[in-house]
Amino acid sequence: MKKTRLLILVASTAMVPCLVQAGTLTPTVQQDLSGMRTDAQAIQQMATTWPEIQSAALGYGNLTPYAMQQWSGQGPVIYTPLGGVELCHNTHWDTVTAGLVLGGVNVMGDAAAEALAIQTIATDFQQQVANLMIAEVQTNAGAAPGTGTAQQLQQSQSQTQTSLNALMSLLNITGQQLQAAISPGSALRQPPFANWRAGIGNVPNLAAARYVAGPNDGAPIGWTIQPLSPLARLLDQCPTGTGSVQMLPIAANVQNAVTVSEQIAPSMRQAFAMFENGSTTDYQQGSGFGSLSPSAGLGGTPNYAVRMQVVGTLSADLPVVAGYMQPVTPALQAYNTTVQSTLSEVLQNVQ
């Protein structure tokens, strides 16, 4: 329902002296209450998930100082005891950095899907409150005058609508920015993918990234530069190492918000479809010595320029996405406060 019509419905209830009377709730009122509870729960969860996605996007900016080398460039060059010169594998890329690529695309998909869900569910909450108030008025039209309940609920509804208007205004702008960020022709730097799609998925917690350097244990993990002889690799001194990036379990919360939105408004399923299929890219990290297809150079060695462009693009673009999201965070939290207060007020007076 359009906002103007919604406001008319809400305002019309103020003329009724008794909004709520004790008694058995009608099926209509029970349905409205159930819808309000579902919406309020989803809004409360999104008020937590949204700033988590924003923080994850902002964290990618921390890659900038060394994205072009440490996390995605070539490893060290060492001289083997048998006279060879070897370019070592970058074990940061294998065990840590590879997890950043798809996770960075997930950040954009999560943000865009969440923005649509907030708009859908917040609008429905206002509709459910209006429906409830009208249903209660119709049910208790012949009852004795109340003691200010209608005025209290009218005030709560007015405060909620005011905060919703502020939130929607910001979301309209942010939604357009996020949609542009994941669309062809974006003003952001485009990752070196011929085909990619931002969808719902977990995101890396860059603050929890860990890398532990290993010994020079003789593992053949590099590429011989000179001489081009297998004998030069009999004793390999390239360093090894292991790393990990903790994934923030955001996908389940975003998907729950999408599911609630689709139940509320089945017409939104088409808009959410692309996000629910998850993020995809045509860039394969691969494994082993040089199987980083399709970004592999001559001799199977990685194409370092492409790898560095991947991580460099993420470190440049995602903080911009975080900037798009930032104005919504306080507005969403303020709206959530009024939603929970309104729901509490309704439950106290209806049940």
Summarize the structure in words:
There is one protein chain. With 351 residues, the chain is mainly α. The chain contains nine helices and nine strands. Helix 2 (27-59) runs antiparallel to helix 4. The radius of gyration is 27 Å and the shape is elongated.
Task: Please write out the topology.
Blueprint: H1 3-12, H2 27-59, H3 64-67, E1 77-79, E2 85-88, H4 91-139, H5 149-181, E3 196-197, E4 203-204, E5 210-213, E6 222-226, E7 241-244, E8 247-248, H6 251-264, H7 269-276, E9 280-281, H8 304-325, H9 328-350
Helix pairs in contact: 2-4, 2-6, 2-8, 2-9, 4-5, 4-6, 4-8, 5-9
Keywords:
351 residues; mainly alpha; three-stranded antiparallel sheet; two-stranded antiparallel ribbon; 9 strands; 56% helix; disordered N terminus
N-C termini distance: 27 Å
Global Rg: 27 Å
Query: Could you say which structural class the secondary elements and strand pairing correspond to?
Result: mainly alpha
Q: Could you give the order of the helices and strands?
A: HHHEEHHEEEEEEHHEHH
Task: Give the total of beta strands.
Answer: 9
Q: Share of helix among residues?
A: 55-70%
Number of discrete helical segments: 9
Mean pLDDT: 76
Shape: elongated
Strand order, biggest sheet?
Answer: 1-2-6
Main β-sheet: number of strands, strand sense, barrel status? Answer: 3 strands, antiparallel
Q: Would you identify the regions where 5 or more consecutive residues have pLDDT less than 50?
A: 1-23, 143-150, 284-295
Q: Roughly what fraction of the amino acids lie in strands?
A: 5-15%
